Amino acid sequence: MMNSADIPRIAEQLRQCGMQAIEIQSAGTRLRIVTRQGAPGEAAAAAEQSPPLPGEATTLVRSNGLGVLRLRHPAQPHVPLAVGMPLEQGAPAVYLESRGLFKSVVAPVGGEVAELLVAEGDKVDFGRPLFTLRGAAQS
Q1: Whole-prediction pTM
Q2: What angle do CA 69, 51, 107 make, to 5 degrees?
Q3: CA distance 25 to 17
């Protein structure tokens, strides 16, 4: 049985395959998903903005795919992502491991990691909140 959390994951898989629409029928329910035009993963890379605290901008960063969360790439000597760590816009923050391949989740804006919402080794679905950035440069 499908639930509402499956819909963004299905839409991202459609985008990655270059498909624009799919229709699913099951037990009297019909669901049609139509993706927006754009590069594969473009919508997934966009971070959702959470309401800022007074005088402070905060950005919620969500997963852009499926996999096991890695706070650092195992082949690189980087320090694992941690609260208080500064990140530049476009810098790889965490990685999703799937079938031995690593996909980076980049910081959509510059800022300081305010909160980690996941831990090393967590299984992550598309759209799951991963961490927040504080003092993020909003454009």
Answers
A1: 0.59
A2: 35
A3: 20
